[in-house]
Specification:
Blueprint lengths: L3 E3 L2 E3 L42 E4 L4 H12 L4 E5 L11 E5 L5 H7 L5 E4 L8 H15 L3 E7 L9 H16 L2 E7 L15 E4 L5 E2 L4 H13 L8 E4 L5 E2 H12 L4 E4 L2 H7 L7 H15 L9 H6 L6 H8 L6
Parallel strand pairs: 3-4, 3-6, 4-5, 6-7, 7-8, 8-11, 9-13
Antiparallel strand pairs: 1-2, 10-12
Helix pairs in contact: 1-5, 2-3, 3-4, 6-10
């Protein structure tokens, strides 16, 4: 039976045959790991809910989902805060609350009883910063103690990459909020290197000979999960999460060529050429500027530099591009 949502929180009706979406349920009984149900208070006043001390946002996505699965595997109870309850992953020890970053009331209710929140940065949009502020303020109102935020490498008010400026603004709001906070400043996702090339096998962009220390999403998730399991001592820290190497896009293309068994090459564009070559997507100006500034930030050296934060937090070496491609299969998709 499909789940119902009341007051922004997911619950299930009892059924004769309990099933989960992946067939993990047992006929004639409850699923092995039934989620704890949350209940809504009156319309005007929400009751504080005792429950998991950790909440994870973005669990329907690549990064948040990885973190949630790691916490579940470690036996950590968690609350999954999602937009759509039907898409929330079925995990042992997890309950589900529905809220968006833009909805202050729903976010405040979803965060009741939570001490630490993994805040995966919101979807890129013109309203992103306002939504981040709303969610952080809701966390303060709900009595949350700390937020672990997925920021970006080189976050700064004058960063070349436009979204790195927004991440800095979010960090500033966290600092001013009075909450404990941890900033996970991850570099570009190593997992997306194959997506940089077009169907013709060409990576185009104004990156010049700049270098990028891209980091695997699995490594970011391992770092985040380690902090969420034992947050003591991390408050106020910003961690620069990188891979073990810094590569030019020409070097990235060579590694992709070797793995994919076909030629991949890097074509350096001017900034003007980069805007022109992306015009056919019909994307809004702010989005195209973000795409192009990804490359110009590389050219400016703002994505270079290898750190040891991944091995220090996770206890294992950071993943290289060749290692990631070797385990992700012949297409390079992870």
């Amino acid at each position: 039976m499909a789940p119902i949502v009341r007051g922004g929180v997911r619950r299930r009706r009892p059924s004769l045959v309990a099933r989960d979406r992946r067939g993990g349920g047992r006929p004639g009984g409850c699923p092995r790991h039934r989620r704890k149900a949350l209940r809504r208070g009156s319309r005007d006043e929400r009751r504080a809910v005792s429950g998991p001390a950790v909440a994870v946002t973005g669990s329907t996505g690549r990064l948040g989902g990885r973190v949630a699965r790691r916490l579940a595997a470690a036996g950590i109870a968690q609350r999954l805060i999602v937009r759509d309850a039907a898409r929330a992953p079925e995990l042992p020890g997890a309950d589900v609350a529905v809220a968006t970053y833009a909805d202050a009331a729903a976010s405040r209710a979803a965060l009741q009883g939570v001490e630490t929140v993994l805040m995966v940065s919101g979807a890129e949009s013109p309203d992103r910063m306002a939504e981040h502020r709303t969610f952080i303020d809701a966390a303060v109102a709900a009595g949350v103690r700390r937020i672990v935020y997925t920021s970006f490498f080189g976050a700064a008010p004058q960063a070349t990459f436009t979204h790195a400026r927004l991440h800095w603004e979010t960090e500033e709001h966290l600092r001013a909020s009075g909450l404990g906070y941890v900033a996970l400043r991850d570099n570009l996702y190593l997992d997306f290197m194959t997506a940089l090339m077009g169907k013709d096998g060409v990576i185009r962009g104004p990156a010049g000979d700049g270098r990028v220390a891209a980091v695997a999403q699995d490594d970011i998730a391992d770092a985040a999960a380690a902090i969420l399991r034992d947050p003591a001592g991390h408050d106020g820290h910003a961690y620069d999460l990188t891979g073990p190497e810094e590569l030019t896009l020409t070097e990235v293309a060579a590694i992709l060529s070797e793995h994919l068994g076909r030629q991949v090459r890097y074509l350096a564009e001017t900034v003007e050429e980069a805007f022109a070559s992306r015009a056919h997507y019909g994307a809004p100006g702010w989005e195209v500027e973000a795409w192009v500034s990804t490359y110009t930030a590389i050219a400016a050296g703002e994505m270079a530099g290898v750190t040891d934060d991944v091995p220090r937090l996770t206890g294992h070496p950071a993943t290289s591009l060749a290692e990631l491609l070797a385990r992700s299969g012949p297409t390079g998709a992870s």
